[in-house]
Amino acid sequence: MIVAPFRRCYHAVMEPPTAPRLSRPARTIFFDAGNTLLRMNYEVLAEQISGRGAPVTPAEVRLAEWRARVRLDATLAPGTSTESGSTSGRYLRYLLEGLGVTDEPRVQAITEWRRGYNLPVGLWHQPDPEAAAALRALADLGIRAAVISNSNGSVRSILTELGLARHLEFVLDSAELGVEKPDPRIFRLALARAGVEPADAVYIGDLYSVDVLGARQVGMEGILLDPGGCWGERDCPRAPGLLAACDLALARGA
What we know:
Blueprint: H1 4-7, E1 28-31, E2 38-39, H2 42-50, H3 58-75, H4 85-98, H5 104-116, E3 126-127, H6 131-141, E4 144-149, H7 155-161, E5 171-173, H8 174-177, H9 184-194, E6 201-205, H10 208-216, E7 221-225, E8 238-239, H11 242-251
Parallel strand pairs: 1-4, 1-6, 4-5, 6-7, 7-8
Antiparallel strand pairs: 2-3
């Protein structure tokens, strides 16, 4: 069956019983970049936090980051840029609080380090462990893949450097377009460029209000990545990883 390449290698899909269903399997899958195809460099962040007197492991940073996403999402008012300094600063602060790092001098020191680290790419320059396998499997099945990302103009070069861009038809970077998710215009641009109807496409991302609700505004279903099971009950499909999310996108309605 069509989803066989994915069923061999994913954890159980977390799908609320009332989640809306696609009328047919997806022909095109759009991906977010950060926290989707790309992951935060947990190792270097753990090293920096530990070096400032708060010993933590990369695994602890990863769990704190998963939880910080949920806290951040709840604060994103309409029109709030996910790429602004205030948003990224709040996100890091939530992550640090999740690790018990709350004293202001240490928080400020880590924040200042993060602002200057690995510019312009920053912390999101590691491939998700499942990204290459998922994109290759989609290509083998003839399923089209592309990226819609809120970014600073660097996401295409990162994906190219990591060897992921060759599996993508195109990459839409909000900095180049002047419009960010969840604005429906960026999703409509992607649909138009792919020449696909919303019912035949799925968007996979890591933030409910930005990715799932943004896609829903144009009639496209969104799948929420929830690797730590931190999001709780939501009115959308959830998956613990990329392979599970792709499997869900291709199986729905089948």
